[in-house]
Design a protein that fits this description.
Length: about 180
């Protein structure tokens, strides 16, 4: 079954097509949701809401560009809505004073796995985590992030800087704990 046939089947309400679409994208979208939620239960709720929106809005997919990219954008927006609804972006304030953290040695970065990094990202405060995900992983500019989150561009930059600092500190702590 081609992607176009799958989409058409879903538009017609065909349960097998809907299940196939869900099975195809659920794991990837769960990873997106988890990056924003920080815990599995909230991520599952976001996943469910995201698929409801995908199925409800399939008619708006024009067939231009990547279908997976279209789905990902819906999920990102769904995650941001959930964070706003629960007021979890309140930590997104302009921060002028940043503290200095020593640079993490390159050898540490060679030893840490992607899973460990994502685990550390999930532990960030929601404001830091959201900006970090949007900028470093999703590729949005700070100007776009500011518009999406209704914050200033400089707030987005400072949140990203603080997120990196916290991550560097936690990576250094993880490295020190594994080498002692």
């Amino acid at each position: 079954m081609t992607e176009a046939q799958l989409i058409e089947g879903c538009k017609r309400g065909d349960r097998k097509s809907q299940k196939k679409l869900y099975d195809t994208y659920a794991a990837k979208m769960m990873a997106v949701c988890f990056r924003y939620a920080g815990d599995k239960e909230a991520a599952r709720d976001m996943l469910q809401d995201g698929f409801i929106k995908v199925f409800s809005n399939l008619d708006s997919y024009a067939g231009i560009g990547s279908f997976e990219g279209w789905i990902r954008r819906i999920f990102i927006n769904c995650c941001l809505e959930a964070l706003r609804k629960n007021d979890l972006l309140r930590d997104t304030e302009d921060i002028d004073a940043t503290y200095h953290i020593h640079d993490v040695q390159a050898s540490v970065l060679e030893e840490i796995s992607a899973k460990e990094i994502l685990g550390l990202v999930s532990e960030l405060p929601s404001g830091f985590r959201t900006v970090f995900n949007l900028f470093a992983i999703e590729g949005y500019s700070h100007k776009e992030i500011g518009e999406i989150l209704q914050i200033t561009e400089s707030t987005s930059r400072s949140q990203f800087t603080r997120a990196k600092q916290v991550l560097q500190k936690r990576v250094a702590e993880l490295y020190q704990n594994t080498n002692t």
